[in-house]
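Researcher: I'd like a structural prediction for the single chain below. Treat it as a standalone chain; there are no partners to consider.
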Amino acid sequence: MIRTHALSLDAVTEEPHHTYSSFRVRGKIFVTIPPEETHLHVFVGEEDREQALALYAAFVEKLFWGSKVLGLRVDLAKATPAVIKALVDKAYDTRVRKDAGPKRMRTPR
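Model: Treating it as a single chain, here is the predicted structure.
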């Protein structure tokens, strides 16, 4: 269900990301899933993340990279298909919006 839905979105590809499968729009990751497919990582903005944590605390938790929160970890055994689809859509929209924004200027080091 996740794979089919993610690949139905405009310009999405599935590519390996270490041992995970990743779903990308124009080369940028918005969702990853491990080989055992027990959970899903969705990369959403802070506002969407906090809302999902409040609404779905039984199966959603913060996804950390070191001390930084990057998205959500979703327990697929407990989550409903409708919520999973909505979170994948949010992650896709977040990635598309981020790429459509103004280019950031890099500061020399």
